Amino acid sequence: QSALTQPASVSGSPGQSITISCTGASSDVGSYNYVSWYQQHPGKAPKLMIFDVSSRPSGVSNRFSGSKSGNTASLTISGLQAEDEADYYCISYTRSNTLVFGGGTKLTVL
Amino acid sequence: QVQLVQSGAEVKKPGASVNISCKASGYTFTTYYIHWVRQAPGQGLEWMAIINPSGGGTSYAQSLQGRVSMTTDTSTGTVYMELTSLRSEDTAVYYCARGGRKQWLTNFDYWGQGTLVTVSS
In Å, how far are A36, B17, B95 from A100, measured between CA atoms? Predict the structure, then answer.
């Protein structure tokens, strides 16, 4: 199972909005709503930011939102803040009864 | 409060095996699946495996089939993950994470602190 495709890096200025894409196939992202997004700061364990495509766990800022169209899921962060600078990973269930992560995206807040 | 506490760092030689434990507390152990995820130095996350603490059913990433296995001890709320025939590319931080009440949910809401496994001759 190949990793889901994410851009290696994205950047934005404080207050702006950015979107990170996560492209899979009809055998994973395109067929199931079991897609989540994780934020990881250096040296830390990942933190759940979005699950089931667009649901937000309690305690996660409403500046984070998720969506899906076809085989591509997206994470949008609005009102960028310095603390949002981190690596972001998507994950999806696959038809092969496994899970697969995206390659990760480094977000830089300029 | 929910906690997942993993065993300490390991240094192994190529060809050896490593066994990492993940002790869960603060919730009913048998009601949530446990996943293992690893991260090689400077690399991304890789999903490895899932276990149902109630019954012990497992599924593994195809890339690790035959080298990884998991067991649970419901009396202590602990999951054990063994990786055999270690290679240098298995050098990584290994995380356990609590999944959902249903098997393939991807919302890992609690994570262990990570266990660094270094494979070196």
Answer: 11, 24, 15
